[in-house]
Amino acid sequence: MQQIQEVILNNTEASAILSVQSVQSLWSEYGGIKRYFLEGGKYKSVIVKHIQFPAKPHHPKGWSTPLSHQRKLKSYQVECQWYRHYSQYTNEHSKIPQCHQIIEEESELLLLMEDLDASGYSIRPDIESVNLIHVKTCLSWLAHFHATFMGTEPEGLWPTGSYWHLDTRPDELARMENITLKNAAKQIDDRLKNALFQTLVHGDAKLANFCFSNEVSVAAVDFQYIGKGCGMKDVAYFISSCFDEAQCETYEDELLNHYFNQLQISLDKNIDFQLVKKEWMGLYKYAWADFYRFLDGWNPGHWKMHGYSERLAQEVLDEVSIK
């Protein structure tokens, strides 16, 4: 690959790279994300996401299989497709970093991107510091995003979005301890996949992938698992990343009402919002049960497998056993 420093200087018209800061390593040692501070040119700093496919993949939980490697490989290719062909349709209500340049080679990829910190999106609340306003701000982002891409076909993206999608997780399915849920996994997946109203889902919309400039202004990153799906998959997964069992119970109605209010504001008026709301409201618990299914096979005992998750999963199991 062309020297990274050369790529940066040519694209940004900077005269020099002043310093480099490591932001994070990529999952399973597939490269890293770095911040480059620049002198002169168009930007004070840029982010470089450099993916290098390892000869022997390593996974922190021991999931280094050929299927796991192929899933990660595709995820980075999907992210490139997203930035090339879809990202331009987002707006100020669903802010994302601008992608300045993409370089793809056989064994590595490079994305040269806007530095959200430099653009003012430097606040990263965690589960200890996140508040209700933060959560509603992200749900607004998701609502506008889902409205924008309602009915969009995922050409070059995942046919079904989300990193825990059943078809891509046979290893975790095989390891499940909850046999009743395991046996219902396909029915749950089918309900979500066959929903009348489909959009593009972010696919990894956890709190850690949102960057705030203040409590009511946010941008999202990491589009490796974007694809077609019911918007409730993002909503359920996001809420699960923010709140514990008691908070989920307390705020469920308030958060879902907020999301659907924002969806109504931003949805194309030719789409019947009430039909969307009716269908998706009924699928919220299915989306939660679907993620719970993944956790049961991936990391039994995970903190998200609490009573609230169990209750929703059981409600779904009761429904699918009747049909």
Automatic annotation (TrEMBL):
Q: Which residues form the CHK kinase-like domain?
A: 111-269
Taken from the record, one Pfam family name reads EcKL
InterPro entries tied to this protein: CHK_kinase-like, EcKL, Kinase-like_dom_sf
Which one of the record's GO molecular function terms can you name?
kinase activity
Could you tell me the keywords of this UniProt record?
Kinase, Transferase
User: SMART domains in the record, alphabetically?
Assistant: CHK
Name of this chain's protein: Ecdysteroid kinase
